[in-house]
Amino acid sequence: MRTDIVHSGAGELTYEIRNIVSVGEKLQQLGRKTYWENIGDPVAKGEKIPTWMKEIVAELVMEDATYGYSPTRGMLETRQFIAERRNSRGGAQIDANDILFFNGLGDAITKIFGFLRSTARVVVPTPSYTTHSSAEAAHAGDRPVTYILDPENNWYPDLDDLEKRIKYNPAVAGILIINPDNPTGAVYPEAILRGMIELARRYDLFVICDEVYHNIVYNGKKTVPISDIVGEVPAIAMRGISKEMPWPGSRCGWIEVYNGHRDPMFEKYVQSILNSKMVEVCSTTLPQRAYPRVVSHPEYGNYLAERVERYEKYSNIAYEALKDIDGVLVNRTNGAFYMSVAFQEGALTHGQILEIDNSQVRAEIERLVSPANVSLDKRFVYYLLGATGICVVPLSSFATSMQGFRITLLERDEATFRMIFQTIAENIRKYLASA
Ligand SMILES: Cc1ncc(COP(=O)(O)O)c(C=O)c1O
């Protein structure tokens, strides 16, 4: 090419959660039974969609209106429904025009960071859900600017570190909060969230708060939506149906803009996101029409409560299985359905292995771990996959130099779930003892 056609941020776009699948599939072909614990899709892990929910969708499918475009911002009745529910809590007040629908939050994230001036940065957590950190880094063509989630303190944000990142980096214009968090499963207490909002207020920043897991909180933990405490700080909350309903295949999520008119620059920025959606026309119609009917159905509360109860039980099974292993740091998951396990510094080496009976699988794993630059946690993840078939994601692929792995709590069968965590515990011990 006579001109470089590759975007300066292209190198920042990685998504190990799906990359690892190609390795797992190859091992499957070589005869390795595989347990997919890498992707946060409850439906792929066998979540049963209740008949009443399917009936709502089926009725909508029979209506011609479902087949049309929706307005660019999204179906008006649905936005009014969301705004009324939001306003009835108190806190930030919005109307239907403060809501904008996207084709899933993945689409929202791409546009929100994509339309930010390339020199303006949003400080993101480390570890960080990759879609956010990659999109932010790609927009700037540089490494993400990060604040620490502390594994020694329940994976809560380190507010001192956050303030330092803001104070010494004048390019920082916003703070990203993910609560409850992916990949750590942490749920932030109100005091921490208030501390983050206070920093935004003091340094004149805006806030993005991803609340896609807001209704999946357990183990007695409490948190608040950002709308409760945002005060006058310009902010964007992200919500969606992928995890809660769950309907990830519908590609439906939305943003709620708080204090959208208080700051002219923020107002212009939000308008540019709306304009970009207009250029694209609109987002998916069917799930927007279904949403109010599903969440106000008399069975919805019980249905969600049953799932949340299962995640709570499984979070404890997982924690009990891993908490006493020397060399690893684990926290009980309190929200969403992920657990991040961190290896203590120095616990991993390039000489550790797990025994793999199948010689073809062993040869494939040895090939994968042979490059000198394979990170130590990726090496562990490959060996675990080869030796046990359990597919997890290296923690270092979540915008952190910390070594570990992320696993989901989505396996529904309790016996299989227990087996998976016992197998992981045994294999961590074996791996750490092997060299
Ligand atoms: C924190 C967080 N935000 C957003 C998303 C993406 O959701 P969507 O399916 O709406 O694109 C995910 C998916 O795993 C997530 O974990």
Largest sheet: 8 strands, mixed
Corresponding CATH superfamily of the largest domain: Type I PLP-dependent aspartate aminotransferase-like (Major domain)
CATH class of the largest domain: Alpha Beta
Distance between the termini: 48 Å
What's the architecture of the largest domain in CATH terms?
3-Layer(aba) Sandwich
Report strand order across the widest sheet: 2-9-8-7-6-3-4-5
Roughly how many Å is the radius of gyration? 22 Å
- CATH topology group of the largest domain: Aspartate Aminotransferase, domain 2
By oligomeric state, this entry counts as single chain
**Order of SSEs, N→C?**
HEHHEHEHEEHEHEHEEHHHEEHHEEEH
Mean pLDDT: 95
Q: List low-confidence stretches.
A: none
Please provide the count of β strands. 14
List each distinct ligand once.
Answer: pyridoxal-5'-phosphate
Q: What amount of the residues lies in strands?
A: 5-15%
Number of helices: 14
The figure for the number of domains is 2
The computed structural class is alpha/beta
Shape category: globular
Helix content: 40-55%
